[in-house]
Structure formats: structure tokens, C-alpha cells
Amino acid sequence: PIMDQAQQLLTKGVDFATVATLMGLLIPQGLGVTIPMAVLIGLLMGLGRLSGDRETVAMQACGISIGRMLRPVAVLALLATAATTYVTIVALPDSNQAFREIVFRQLASYTADQVEPQVFDRSLPGVNLYVRGVEEQGTKWTDVLLAITQDEGQPILYVAEQGRIIVDYDAQTVDIELRHGSIHRVPPHDHASYTQTKFTTTLVPFDAETIFDDGGGPPRGFGEMSLPELEEQMVQIVAAGGSPHNATMEIHKRFSLPSACLAFALIALALGVTN
Fold first, then answer.
1. Tell me, what DSSP letter sits at residue 169?
2. Is a pLDDT exceeding 70 seen at residue 42?
3. pLDDT tens per residue, range 254-268
4. pLDDT-wise least confident of 88-97, 109-118, 172-181, 196-205
5. pLDDT attached to residue 213
6. What phi, psi does 217 have (nearest 5°)?
7. Which of 121, 172, 226, 235 is exposed most, by the fewest CB atoms within 10 A?
8. H-helix or E-strand containing 48?
9. Do 63 and 244 form a contact (C-beta atoms < 8 A)?
10. Which helix (H) or strand (E) holds 249?
11. In the 8-state DSSP scheme, what is residue 213?
């Protein structure tokens, strides 16, 4: 997944330093799973070697019980649990949020600045954009043709004298502002009801989640919240009459992954000392 993200960002023209930063922000997502698995595999390899060489039999013959062998294993499991807890509760939400912000800024800047004149631009999903002229670093257009095809049942065509793209980085919204034009609609099954609406200024909003979905990244929403924020979200969902199931599962996941280190340690000891 990390290499897939790198490829998608590099094809968008994002510089290598930013891509490397984004790849580093994805590391906590992997550590939440790989630390518990490393504990299990590492202990199985170490204890399995002791068992294969019959050293565990010799240790038990010398009076070293399974409980005493559990001590160093428990220490390792506790350290791994602490590390995984830090990753899932502290590092992961912050890194996910930082990843989202950087990806949004980079791809939004690319979308705003890279519109070329007299070329059909399809970088926005479900949108065909054609501008005759580009001014002011690519953000102001003249003679704009905008076709919205997201809704296959009723495509919408905008024709305007001027236009520009507006990106709100804080709110993470993307809008196209058009001036002095008209809106054309043709229902698919009723061509006779073609409508034309003129406007002085209109704003065409886009779902930023849909636009930048190819930027990928970690799961959005609950994955970027801290535990207090998740609990507050649960209260709001319940107050609105909804089910807090997803938020509850996210909290459980934050603790279940660290707890897996303890469970894996017991499993590894039981299997490792078995001939």
C-alpha cells in the first residue's frame, strides 16, 4: 500500500521529499499490526529452536518451570504492548491527520494550477472541463465549458464567460465559481423538457472526498480521532438517534491490537515449548 501511494502521488507531480514525508506518516499504520505479529513470530522462532534442540526438556529437568520461562517472555510482551499502545492511541491518529492534510493540499494545488487552456481536463472525476484562456497562474479562466457527468441520469452543462477554482484548505472543500453564463439540462428520457437557466454568478461545489479519493491514504474519519474525540462523537451520535457502532469498534481496535501482544506471547510460549 505504501508503494501504491507513492506511485499515485508521483504521477500527480508531487515532489519526492513530500512523497517521502507521506510515506513516513504511513509507518504507524503498519506498526500497529506488525509489532504484535513480530512478537508472535519472534517468540515462536526462539522458543521453537529451544524445543527443537531439547533445551526446554533440559531446563525443566533442572527445575526451571514454565512459569519461570514466562518471565522474560512477559517482559517482551509488555514492552511490545506499550509500544503498540502508543502507536494506536497517540501516533496513528496524528499521522493519519497529517497525511490527509498534506495529500489534500498537494492534490488540490495540482488541480487548481494545472488546468491547461484549450484542452479537455478530466482530472476531476465525473467532470469534463474546457477553458479557452487561462490567467493569473492558472486559477482564472475565460470561456469555460463545464460538463458534470457524475449523475448519468441527467448530465448538466455549464457555459460561462469566466471561471475559477476555489480551494478551502481548512474546510477541505473544492468549488468552481462561474460568472456570466448559463446552465443547460437535458433529461435522458425526455428531450423535449430541455431547460436553460442564466446566471450572473454560480458556485459548483464538489465533494473533496470524491475528488481526492485517488490520493488514498488511511481510512478517514474515526481513524484520525483521539480517544476523547471518539467518545464525544459517540455521545453526539447517540443524541442524534444513531448507532455508535463504528466509533465503538474504533476504540476497541485501539486496545485490541496492543492486547494481542500479550495473547500472542502466551500462544508462542505454549507452542514453543511443545515438542
1. T
2. yes
3. 899 899 999 999 988
4. 109-118
5. 46
6. 100, 180
7. 235
8. helix 27-52
9. no
10. helix 245-272
11. G
Can you give the length of the chain in residues?
Answer: 275
**Using an 8 Å Cβ cutoff, are 26 and 95 in contact?**
yes
Supply 227's cell numbers.
480517544
Residues 6+ away with beta carbon under 8 Å from 133: 117, 141, 142, 143
d(Cα 42, Cα 45) in Å, to the nearest integer?
Answer: 5
User: Can you tell me the distance from the alpha carbon of 12 to that of 110, in angstroms, rounded to the nearest whole number?
Assistant: 7
Alpha-carbon distance of 77 to 88, in angstroms, equals 16
Residue 99: how many CB atoms within 10 A of its CB? 25
Mean pLDDT computed over 80-87: 93
For residue 269, the one-letter residue type is L
Cell of 21: 514525508
- Residue 145 is given by DSSP the state E
How do residues 10-19 score in pLDDT, each as one tens digit?
A: 776 677 887 7
The three cell numbers locating residue 224: 484520525
Cell of 162: 469566466
Cell of residue 250, nine digits: 474504533
Q: Rounded to an integer, what distance in angstroms lies between the CA atom of residue 98 and that of residue 104? A: 10
What residue type is assigned to position 15 of the chain? D
Query: Amino acid identity, residue 205?
Result: P
